[in-house]
Amino acid sequence: MAPISDLRIAVICSCNMNRSMEAHHFLSKKGFIVKSFGTGDKIKIPGSAADKPNIYDFGITYDEIYQDLLNKDKTLYTQNGMLHTLDRNKRIKSHPEKFQEANEKFDLLITCEEKVYDQVLEFMETQEPSDNSIAHVINFDIPDNLEEATIGAFLISDLCTMIIKSEDLDNDIEEVLHTFEDKAERPILHSIIFN
Amino acid sequence: MEGDDENSVVEWFNEASSCTDGQEKLKLFCKIQEFLIHRHPNLLPKYLQNVLNFTTDKNQDIKKALVGFIEELCKVRESLLPKVMLSLHLLLCDESITVQKRVIQAAITIYRKTLAWLCRATNSTDEMEAAWKQLNTIKLEIANMIDSDNDGIRTSSVKFLECVILLQTYPDEVDNKRENDFSLDDVPLTLKIARRRKLEEEASNLFEVLVKFHGSPHISSANLLACIGVLRNLAKVRAEFMGRVVGAIESLYNNLPPTLSTTQVNAVKKKLKSELLGLIKHPAAFDYVGKITPILLELGCSQSDITKATSKPEDRKKYTKRTLSAESSVQSAAKKPKLDTNYDYEDANEIGVALTPIETNEQFVNENLSVDKAVYLMMTSIPKLPSTMPQDFAKVYNKYVHSGRIGKAHCVHLLAKQLLDNRLGPGGKMEPPPQKEKEPEVISKKREREVDEEDKQLEKEKEKVAKKEKVKVVKIKTLKLSEITKPMDKETKENLLIASVKRMLLSEKFALKSVYQKVVTTFAASFSPVVRDTVLSHLLADLRSNVDLALSLLFEEYSIMQGFARVPPLRKGSRPDQSYNKLLCIFISSSTHDALIISRLLLEAPLITEEAMLQIKEICRDENKSGWALGLLRDLTLRKPPKQLTFLNALLSYTTYDSPVVRENAIGHVLDLHKRPELSMIIEEFARMNLEFLKLQRPPDSLSGHDQGRLKAESWGDDYIKACLVPYVSLLPANESLVHDLAKIYIATNADIKRVILRLIEGPVKSMGMESPELLKLVEECPKGSETLVTRVIHILTDKAPPSSQLVQRVRELYNTRVSDVRFLIPVLNGLSRKEVISALPKLIKLNPIVVKEVFNRLLGQHGESPITPTELLVSLHLIDASKADLKTVIKATSMCLQEKQVFTQEVLAVVLQQLMEQTPLPTLLMRTVIQALGSYPRLSGFVMNILQRLILKQVWKNKVVWEGFVKCCQRTIPQSFTVLMQLPPLQLTDAIKMSADLKDPLKEHLLQFTEAQRAHIPAAVQEIVLGTYKPQPVPAPLPAEMPASQPDFAVITSPPPVSVAVLGSEPLPPGME
Fold this sequence. Notes:
The complex is a heterodimer of chains A (195) and B (1074). Chain A is of the alpha/beta class and 195 residues long.
């Protein structure tokens, strides 16, 4: 299927597990060119207690995490939906990707959390621009749980739909965001970077 | 192998040139690019031109790809750069925004590569120079694009400027020099086409542009974010800019563009925070920690964070800045924010930095020192200057002369200091003892001198600033109004609005009329009611001269009402149809006194609303205004066909109005309209309807009430009758056939109404004239019951002119066949034949005296030619048969005639008498008339005597009445009548003497005076009778036999025996008997 727009989109959360993957899933179904990333140092998955998360390094595949959790406590991870999430994830791509290691170019970067937004901007500043094209970084907070991730994915999809309708995004972005902000009813952060 | 590839690339070119599908073409282009750039760069020179031919392609994707190709090309083969510059420039001028943007972005790489290439080159060629020139043009264009309308282009332009500035400045002299950093150091001093000094100057200029852009008050958030990033980057890499950048950021922080939304402000603040935290790490930023810290604290950083981030002393030691250039920029940086910002006293306090008195004063002066004030200060202090410069002043002044530049900041500083020294200004108050005076003008003489010099400097500086400002104005970018405006409070907004509207209204004389009108009307129509009221009151103040404006406003409202124009957003919710109506009514009510204006308004207004109509009607009711107001209604009827009926009906309703003035005016205009065939029917219908009312028992309600100006009545008053009649009757001359209906109505109405009708038709009938076929027809038909009307009509027609033959004919026929009322004839008497007149006379004289008099007037030629001469008339009267008219009537009639002494002059009477006498038998009234004639004209006596004598010959005594008259006449004409008397036969003489005893003695005396000779002529019997000696004797002849018959009567005159008289009468005396 031909993509509905040649806009290159990245959705970024901290672990590339729940929020970014949900949006990735949803957007690719809609026909967007989309990739998903995490910016965190490690992949953290809630464990049996709040202070006992499961921690993995980037590089591990979803399947490996899936197997690991399955072995650890099948009931718990079925109940909290982690297994389901991982199952979905591995159908989309093989493993979580770290944004800072990706070295790819995007036109639109959507982050799900202010900290992630900061990290993206911080990282982009250290990069020497190559073609100097303008990319927009947009953040609105999505709490890290399954339901909110779904709602967030809808919102991201709405936003992307609005954005691709614009013929000249660089010129219209303020207006689009203003409209979107009214609709989403949550604060938005926006910045531009040069690829 | 390579040959095959080359063949395929040629094939691709061919395909691409014939390909119409954009996607397909793009693919081909990518293939070509891949092939030429990466696989066989050696083929590039050969095919470059073919690639560049795509510059003129219509597809913007291809053009973008082409820019990408050029970008790649300059990385691979710098030597080919000169060949692509033109295409690059063309692409930059492309109409597609995305292509332009792509060019700017690519230009960053290309510029860097080109400059490096030039610097590496051992010797520069013409080609290089041309390419560099072209690139410089591109560079300037991109730099100008910082004021583009497009946000993305501005952003890209900012990024490009960053690159240029970085390339064309000297690097910091530190060992942590970034890799791949090209700088001015790399530009060889020997390079002729690009001199270091020029490049640096250019960079410095561009940096100024950037800072200005950064500080522009309406910058968009994306631009601002880009700008902050770029400035931060510049400051980081080129420490010489640190001061300026910190200043600019500080200024920005204090003056965030008002157009930013809350979200955008948050994003910008976040950006500022991270960038400042980044900057403060830099050793060069240490000097500015004092400035940065408060901002960071404000932005939510803790003091410890800041301290942690601040550069370590050992780093600073390592870091040695390029003293000269850095210093100058520090100086300008210190100045810059003060020029750019409106630093607010309160803001400063909010930030929490305690200001020293001197700073406070500086601020105060900075805010208040306008060019006007400076000029004022100069002008007032020039006369006070001493002729030579004082020593101490020279010292202070020299300081600035040497430093070369004096900015506002310096002036401000000095002024502030002087104020403080004198304990003036807000700063002066901060220190005890507080001083009341405030104005900077109150400065000691000596100070003023100094101030003056500074002012001169200040002014120069101001001019400079002004120039800069001007340049900026030209470049100002298009802004969305909603973004850059902040809501004002309602009252201020309205006040400002009203004030500006008022100013605008006053500018009429200077403005282009059409534009002025359009602007004012748009204002009035699309803004709030307050504005509208302002405009309205301006209009109403002098509606006469503003009538054009008023009309154009009406049209504006009308188009809004009709939906031709959009309902102005500010007026949503109001009822536009109402506002048009209201406007029109206001205009009308304020111009009721001005016929000209109101006519213009109404005639040109697109629509007359009902309410407006009511107002017009009200004006029409005013007797003084009804003349033109009703005329206006007429014009409206004619010129506004869609509402023709409304206006016409309004106008018609005034034809029955109470006030005669109004009514007359209305009728006049209606008659005017009646000339138009399309309207005449309606008008006649209306008149007829009103006429029909007369048949009703009582006046209809529609004639009373406010609209008609009269009270309701139960019975027909004159007033009502008139109201119903006037419109119809007035139409008569215009449409004569209407008269028949009038006759029908006439028949059906009561006496009162009839009377009024008869009175009212006079004018119209007169103007219709005798020749009117319809009137003739009416006379001819004369419906039963309408005789009086017809009579009246005939009367009116013949009042001033002799009747036409046609009319006479009609009347005659009528009289002869249907209505034998002689009165019909009176008006046309003059048109009748003599015979007819004479035959009608008996009837005519029977009418009442007034009418008879009128008849005689006519017959006696007072209304023109009469068919009968006065003589004939009088004679005819005498000859009227007693069976047709009794004597008394005839007597009256003749007396009436004889009173007309102008007509019946002596001569006329003589002829009459002559004729009468010739009649046989003698007319009864003959002698009466003779006597009367004699009474009027005594000089006729001679003639009368003659008549009397002739009467004797006619045996006058045979007619008793005439005989009595004869005697009476003789009696009256003593002594002339003696002769006559004595000619009477004796019997008759005796009778006469007997009848009038007065005769005898005078007659006797008369006879006695006779001489003998005279007596001889008188018959003896007569003498005897006169002398009283006459004895009746039997007369043998039959003739004398009569005489004795009268003899016995002689003695008893008083009581003559009737028998004898009868006998006498039967035997006339032979004439000439002696």
